[in-house]
Amino acid sequence: MTDRAWLIGIVGGSGSGKTSIAQELIRRLQALSVQALLLDMDTYYAPLEVVRARFNGRPVNWDHPHAFDLELMAAHLASLRRNQPIRKPIYDFTVSDRVGWEEPMQPGRVVILDGLLLFSLPELREQLDAKIFVDTDADIRILRRIQRDMKERGRSVESVIEQYLESVRPMHLEFVEPSKRWADLIVPTGVENERALEVLIHHILGLLNRSTTPKQD
Asked: For the chain, what is the radius of gyration of the CA atoms?
């Protein structure tokens, strides 16, 4: 029997529905008595002071790899694979800064990872056991982003659209969309795709079953 967690990465453009799929997979796995943990790449934005220094006076591009604490996230993925606990950073989007650390958490059997750049960056991609890309039309994604940022992050419509045009869309075309080629499975639309969810659960259970099957001499 394996003594490590299985890491499942879910990537898609901002507003694609990848977080909803991740949350639904967690719910279904837990209903099957499979211990599962959700890890969101957005919590791994680097501290604001570090991010500003990296952009050296230029406007911060929050969709660029330089905005993230990749070293910390890669270290946490390695710990989770070894079934070791981690302390997730706490990130406050209203002030765009890291504000503390969560209590230590155990990985469980499965860790579902949700993030824009998981496949684009080899230090993260190469640690994943399965890679899922959520493919949603751009018009749906921008509408969802506007709704989310206004409701959860206190943003105005104008600021969301400005950021989308200046950084979100260009970074999607440069990093996110090309990373689709690394995906093992591509899910059209999002959480409403019931057949895709069934396939994903079957695939994950297959990985777990493979890990518990004794090797033949």
From this structure: 17
Q: What letter would DSSP give residue 174? A: I
- CA distance linking residue 143 with residue 121, whole number of Å: 27
- pLDDT tens-digit series, residues 156-182: 899 889 888 988 899 999 999 999 999
DSSP 37-101: EEEEGGGGBPPHHHHHHHHTTSPP-TTSGGGB-HHHHHHHHHHHHTT--B--EEEETTTTEEEEE
Q: At what angle do helices 18-31 and 194-212 cross, to 10 degrees?
A: 50
- Tens-digit pLDDT profile for residues 67-85: 999 999 999 999 999 999 9
What local confidence, expressed as pLDDT, does residue 217 receive?
Answer: 41
CATH topology assigned to domain 6-212: Rossmann fold (3.40.50)
Residue ranges covered by each domain of the chain = 6-212
Token pair for residue 171?
């970074």
CA dist., res. 142 & res. 123, Å (int): 29
What is the end-to-end Cα distance of the chain in Å, rounded? 15
